[in-house]
């Protein structure tokens, strides 16, 4: 550290600097390199950035595929850095503490190539292949985009898809990836077998571990997005009830104790005549949230009148509250992408532009870009190495 400035003051100053500046400062001296590379400093910088410096990682789409073009934008969607990932056709799984999990779109592949990437430092790690899963000694093939792929096998037809989630396990101080590959026999109407292969990857140990091989299926996926909160991955699913009907629920997987949890949606969503075009999960006010859009008579495309529900806890009892309802028809909103850094609704309009809608002030902020937005997630800069 500089002899003219107190070490404590220098440390506090360095902790407030962006990653790009800190990366340059590592070249100033061996001492500065040692301080900035110290795991304690990296953890402190990440924690401070999480609470004071949230931004957005925006992925742009060209043609039929999501290319490797990304940008970092501040809370007002003003771009401050362009970043490129060296491999094309990837999609964002999730972002957590400065690291981003990417999934490679490889159709008709029995593997799911994944990467953990730090956009701030440009460093990434290719995740080793997960353990292969043979069902009746016939290896199935799946789509990495969680859509149904019908495969004709020697012993019948199967529908397969995958669920992927990324998060942080506070108990072991480890970043982890959840991979669930679901296989359903569809050849016979009389008897259908269903299986889910469940594996967890540890970034610290750099290996996959199968936790429940060849088990009866967990509820089927109804959307391809997962969110991370409090050491668990959450996603929307469809569960077949005992009476044969299908019901939307939320499934959660805790990275700490490796258990599943199932939550019902608000009762009003089960007992309604409204046609819900979309039910999506998100994180709002540090809680699980639901974004629900409805058909309206004068709105045949895009999002119409939308309601947002948030799950709250009261003396260890969870309950849903309707936080707000908003009419998005005037915003030409086409697709919900999530909730913003300041609890705005993050949308893509019919021109493919990223839009933030503040339901409290009814203000709209639009990303200034001519490119079609494929996805966007809240991101915090960090020095954490993948």
UniProtKB/TrEMBL annotation:
Organism superkingdom: Eukaryota
Domain F-box positions: 4-41
SUPFAM superfamilies the UniProt entry points to: F-box domain
Record's protein name: Uncharacterized protein
NCBIfam families in the cross-refs: F_box_assoc_1
F-box associated beta-propeller type domain sequence ranges: 75-364
